[in-house]
Amino acid sequence: SQQGEEDPQALSIQEGENATMNCSYKTSINNLQWYRQNSGRGLVHLILIRSNEREKHSGRLRVTLDTSKKSSSLLITASRAADTASYFCATELGSYNTDKLIFGTGTRLQVFP
Amino acid sequence: DAGVIQSPRHEVTEMGQEVTLRCKPISGHNSLFWYRQTMMRGLELLIYFNNNVPIDDSGMPEDRFSAKMPNASFSTLKIQPSEPRDSAVYFCASSLHREDQPQHFGDGTRLSIL
């Protein structure tokens, strides 16, 4: 089964609004990563948060991690039409599984101009 | 810098034919991954290599699937014989073999088996 489950499955907002996506996972992790996938393209890495970090920022992106709840959230502030894409969380498992990522089910974000 | 390069971008073939997908990882990366993406099952890891050696092939669906990495700059995923249920988008990704490294994806091969 998927390590990561994301919600919502789909999200529609207007330009300028904030978008929040959530990810839950099942086992202990080294890190959690977020990726974006535009239609017909490969996944693009956005941001990585380590298991000992609680919050990380990159431009308009803010990621939080709560290892006690095994959950993470991705916030995109001041969204743009170009942010329209699917967003996936991915977890890197324990040290002996270095490299291997388990991807969540994804959130489809639609940003209307 | 060139990213991960996959070929072909699209492949349409008849059931029973052999299909070979190709991948060139980013130069200097020593981990390579093959994924399959479908609407029903999402993104599944099929196999990954470290320094050209297969490390985990537990995601390979059955013996009809095989993957090779003869050198650091080239990998193939082969399906023989192909079946309609193999229709999917197949992605190759590469990374540095260290903790906390992102994976870099190619744009995938859209495979349709008729």
What does this structure look like?
The complex is a heterodimer of chains A (113) and B (114). Chain A contains no helices and 11 strands. In chain A, the strands form 2 sheets. In chain A, strands 2, 4, 5, 9, 10 and 11 form a 6-stranded mixed sheet that branches. Chain A has a 5-stranded antiparallel sheet with strand order 1-3-8-7-6, with no helix packed on it. Helices cover 0% and strands 55% of the residues of chain A. Chain A is mostly beta strands. Chain A has strands at 5-7, 10-14, 19-24, 31-37, 43-50, 55-58, 61-66, 71-76, 85-92, 101-103, 107-112. Chain B has 114 residues and is mostly beta strands. Helix content of chain B is 0%, strand content 54%. Chain B is built from no helices and 11 strands. Chain B has strands at residues 5-7, 10-13, 19-24, 31-38, 42-50, 53-56, 65-71, 74-79, 88-95, 104-105, 109-113. In chain B, strands 2, 4, 5, 6, 9, 10 and 11 form a 7-stranded mixed sheet that branches. In chain B, strands 1-3-8-7 form a 4-stranded antiparallel sheet, with no helix packed on it. Chain B is globular. The mean pLDDT of chain B is 95.
The description of the largest β-sheet of chain A is: 6 strands, mixed
> Which chain pair shows the most residues in contact?
A-B, 25 and 25 residues
Number of helices of chain A: 0
Radius of gyration of chain A: 13 Å
Strand content of chain A: over 45%
Please give the number of β-strands of chain B. 11
Report, as a whole number of angstroms, the end-to-end distance of chain B: 36 Å
- The portion of residues assigned to helices of chain B is under 10%
Profile the largest sheet of chain B.
7 strands, mixed
What's the helical proportion of residues of chain A?
Answer: under 10%
pLDDT under 50 segments of chain B (min length 5)? Answer: none
Kindly report the oligomeric state of this protein: heterodimer
Mean pLDDT across every amino acid position of chain A? 91
- First-last Cα distance of chain A: 36 Å
Shape of chain B: globular
Instruction: Name the overall outline of chain A.
Output: globular
> What are the secondary-structure elements of chain B, in order, as H or E?
EEEEEEEEEEE
Mean pLDDT of chain B: 95
